[in-house]
Write a structure and sequence with these properties.
Elements: E1 3-7, H1 13-24, E2 30-33, E3 51-57, H2 65-71, E4 80-87, H3 95-105, E5 109-117, H4 133-151, E6 177-178, H5 187-191, H6 215-219, E7 225-226, H7 229-243, E8 250-252
Organism: Candidatus Flavonifractor merdigallinarum
Protein name: 4Fe-4S binding protein
GO molecular function: iron-sulfur cluster binding; metal ion binding
Length: about 250
């Protein structure tokens, strides 16, 4: 059995949770970065003996559109898939069931699904520092249960929560803007998962392309990209009630 890690992780939280799981499963033989807008995913193919951990963040209870599109280019060829959705302590709603449909559409056999928590990518005080040691211990336990299922040759599909049709996708609208500290180095444009930032003029962002993933904010070496203070305050107020209580991960086998 070869284990692979496929992640759409603009700010690193999803990658961190997925890596904890795959490490506990024995370590990945290879990785596919679904955030790479310039990659040719049609060249990625698996075999029925492979296991793929497919991890995405939950954006307003849905899978990010680019992740669905790029996963659809990959040839699953009957490989087993362990789905992981990572959310910022609010809710993941239809993310896992949408990811299940996308994985099946790409030819994977879904054998397990995990909901994990990571620091909120916009309102960082929610789930700050997560996944933490407690989360890692839980993911290690999940990994062992998944390995036991694989060893038993059990390929039954888990019952994954969610709705079809999925909830309406939320609007973005939170487009980070450069501050006076911006040096126009272009790193944000190079790393943007949807090429929304003009590489010739990083001060210009296509708001129709932007998915509010906050990668440009997280990778800027000068901390020179920000979301407006008023908008951040509004998000903080909206999340306060639903995000204040610590949530734990869930496993579906």
């Amino acid at each position: 059995m070869k284990l692979y890690e496929l992640t759409f992780s603009p700010t690193g939280g999803t990658q961190k949770a997925a890596h904890m799981l795959t490490t506990a499963m024995g370590g990945a033989s290879g990785a596919v970065d679904l955030t790479d807008s310039r990659a040719d995913f049609s060249t990625v193919a698996f075999t029925p003996e492979d296991v793929a951990v497919i991890a995405v963040p939950s954006y307003s209870g849905r899978v990010p559109g680019p992740a669905v599109q790029r996963l659809g280019c990959i040839k699953g060829n009957g490989a087993r898939a362990v789905l992981v959705c990572v959310y910022g302590n609010r809710a993941y709603e239809d993310t896992l069931v949408e990811l299940e449909d996308a994985a099946k559409g790409a030819g994977f056999r879904v054998i397990a699904a995990v909901a994990a928590i990571a620091e909120h990518s916009i309102a960082h005080r929610y789930a700050a520092g997560r996944p933490d040691q407690e989360d890692e211990a839980q993911l290690q336990d999940f990994a062992q249960q998944i390995l036991n299922k694989c060893s038993a040759g059990d390929d039954t599909e888990p019952k994954i929560p969610g709705n079809r049709p999925y909830k309406k996708a939320g609007g973005t609208g939170m487009v980070p803007k450069p501050t006076k500290d911006c040096t126009r180095c272009g790193l944000c444009a190079a790393k943007c998962p949807v090429q929304a930032i003009d590489p010739k003029d990083p001060h210009h962002t296509d708001k129709d392309k932007c998915i509010s993933c906050m990668r440009c904010v997280s990778v800027c070496p000068y901390s020179a990209r920000k979301v407006g203070a008023v908008m951040l305050a509004a998000v903080d107020v909206a999340l306060k009630k639903v995000c204040s209580e610590r949530k734990t991960g869930e496993l579906y086998l």
